[in-house]
Structure of SET domain-containing protein-lysine N-methyltransferase:
Amino acid sequence: MRRIAVRNSLIHGRGVFALANMAAGDPIIEYKGEIITAKEAQRRVERSTVEGGHTFFFNLDDGRIIDGARGGNSALWINHSCAPNCKAEQQGDRIFIYATRAIDEGGELFIDYQLDIEGRRPAALKRMYAFRCGARRCRGTMLEARW
């Protein structure tokens, strides 16, 4: 039985939605894709023709990256929220998404991206990652809280 589906989101573009009630701690999906180096990821961003260099990258603890746009699955459509109902956990070189609280059937799944961008932090970069998730304590960005 399928537990999730990709649909249009009221928050942003496409999103992932629960097809059944989920409890806190329930495993939902693995974030799949091609594992690449940070250097290759930068090359892909520079060659991208997508507006704003949009990617489906998920960083691993060792500096490598999972590129969900290549060999990925529905997990790449999970949207950001400052009040997430899911979390990502790394196990080796794999990322799994788990519910952090109960999610009702039909509810959209969210993780807090907390993007960590190294180097200079110009206003243009902050604008590029601006996001209004609608959470009561929305910080207005997909970047990590220190921004």
In short: Residues 125 and 134 are 21 Å apart (CA to CA). The mean pLDDT is 87.
